[in-house]
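Batch manifest, entry 17 of 40.
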Amino acid sequence: MADQSASGRIGRRTAFTGLAAAVPIAAGLARPASGAGAGKRTFVLVHGAWHGAWCYQRVTDKLTSAGHKVYTPTLTGLADRSHLMMPGITLQTHVDDVVNLIKWEDLTDIVLCGHSYGGAVISGVAEAMLPQIASIVFLDAFMPESGQTIAELSPTSRENVLASQARGAISLPAPPARAFAVNPADQAMVDAKCTPQPIRTFTEGIPITGARERVRRKAYVRGEQYARDAFDAAYEKARQDPGWVAHKLPCGHDVMLDLPDRIAEILLQAAAN
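Output type: structure tokens
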């Protein structure tokens, strides 16, 4: 299956996908660069709701084995930082997690990637750190407008928020992995590792002025086996915009688990375009 991109997009801006395409990994991944620091890239990979840095391990291994630098921050209150769960965690808290990583590590020329809810996080990061971002990649991700919340974008999330608020909860329980159309081999692992999501990350928006659109290299990746209207709309918007590269992949929502080779390749393409 070929990636779907804007009409008339040719040459290096045309993307191709499918399981067959996952075999020959991109040249930047498969072939070590020559010379000190030549061809090396810096990636900041932001996970989605209920997940943590763990979900990117396969992609991280592929990128770091080729000499690239990869950061996969776990957001406050989740996974290995679940002991920090508290009522005051908001979307802005998670934006600050990533912004401070970029600042304290002195990162520049980065490829910033966000999965699912992480699309809202990296949209906020772009507002604060635009000069440091060379490429931005949305993996089956939300792209909210200014002030727009995840609960507004997702009917399922809105129902979960209302039910949790009725119980006086400060977090949202994780859905089962099968709800994300995760491949059967990984469902038990995902169920074991997912943790509750701070509820205010879904109920509070942030100011967005469109900095993500001003990043020079932009890509959107859609996992076509997971039904979500907000992601379909974001994909179509990217597909029709010549400033973006749009990919549609034969996988579920956790694209980095289902097709790690292809995701690593797409990230490298985003860095090089």
